[in-house]
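Extended Data, panel c. Modelled sequence:
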Amino acid sequence: MKRFILFLMLLSISLLFAGMPDTLFTLPMPQFCAPYYDFFARNYIGSEAAGRGYTGLSIPAPLPGVMLNPATLELDKTRFYLEAIFKPAYAAEALPFSAEYHGSDLPLGIVALGFPLGNSWDAALSYSCPQSLILKDFSVEINQGAGMVVRRPTQILHQATGTLAWQPVPQLRLGLNLINQWHYIDDHLWVHSWDRQEYFSYNFRLQPGLILGDESKGLGLSGMPPTPTKWELRLASYEYDIPWEAAVGGHYSQGDLRLALDMHYQNTAQIHEDFKDHYSLHLGLEKTKGVNTYRAGYFYSSDVYSGYVKIPINPAAESGELDPDYFWEYVNPYLKISDTAQHFLGVGYTRNFRRGNIYFSAMHAFGSPQAQTQLTLGLNLHTSTFFNTKLPEK
C-alpha cells in the first residue's frame, strides 16, 4: 500500500511538471538578442518583397532585393533607394504598467546606392536595420510606490553591406553580400542591479547567392554560414554562433502575372537545447498593368521558443558578495513568451514613372498569439534626377 501511495505521488508530481511551460533559467546570449524576439524585432526590409509574401529570391530586380539574395541585383542605371518601416507598438505579456514593444525611434529600413559596372556586373552599397526592439517600459516601483525607476531595454542591429552581382551567361546570375553587422544593446536588465550601460558587438558575414533563369521563370538560392560572436558585458560574457541560414525560391510568369514561392531555414536549435529550428514558407502573386503593379502574399513563420525567460541575476547579489536590493524583491523576474509562430498576409503596390518607382506594402500577422503589423514606404530613383541641371527649352 505504501508503495502504491508513493507511486501515485511521484506520478502526480511528474504530471504537474509536464504541464508546466518551459523556462529558460540560463540565457545563452543577451536576452533581447534571442531569436524568440524576432516575432517583433525583425524588420522585413524591401517593400516589393513584403507586399508579395516576402518572396523574391529568384526575381532579378533593382534595390533592395539584395537583402534576400545578392544575385537578384540588376541595374540599368545608377539608382538610389530609400525605405521607411513603421511598426505599431505591441503590448508586452505579463508586465505591469502597460509595457509595450516598440521598433526603432528612427523608422529607417534601408538606404542604398546601386550602380552598373558594365554589361554583366552590378554593385551596391547599403545601410539597413534588420532588427530593432525597445521595451517601453520595464518599470520598478520604489519607496512604496512613491517613485518609479523606468528601464528601456534596447537591441538594434545595424548593417552595412557591399553587394556584387555577376551575370556570366543569360540564364545564370551570381552574387555576394559582404555584411558588416554592429549589434547594439542598451539598458540590459539584471535583477538586483541598476546598471545602465550600452554595448556593441561586431560581426562580419558573407551571403552568397545564385539565380538560374530569367524574369519569366527561375530558381534562386542563398545562404549564410554560422558566425562566431562574443559579448563582453560588465556582469557577464557570452560566446555563441550566429546560426547558419539557407533559402530557396522560385517564380513563374504568365503574361502580366507572376507567382513566387520561397522557403527559408535557420539553424536556431544549435544556440540552446530548448530552441527549435526556425523555418518560413512564403507565397506571393503580383500583376502589372501599365505603370502600376499590384501584389498580395502570405507567409508562415515558425515558433522558436515559447514559455518563460528568467531575467539574469546580478552575480554579486547571487553569490552573497552584494546585499540584494530591497526594491527588486517585488519584481517578477520571469518574462513570458507565447507561441512565436505567425501567419502573415500582405498587400503591396508600385507606381512606376520615368525616373524611378514608388513602393508601398502592408502586412499583418492574423490569428497568431504574437501579432505584428508592418507598413513600408520605398522610393527608388535614378541618380540623374539629382544631377540633371539641364533647363527646359523655351
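The radius of gyration is 24 Å. This feature is highlighted in the accompanying rendering.
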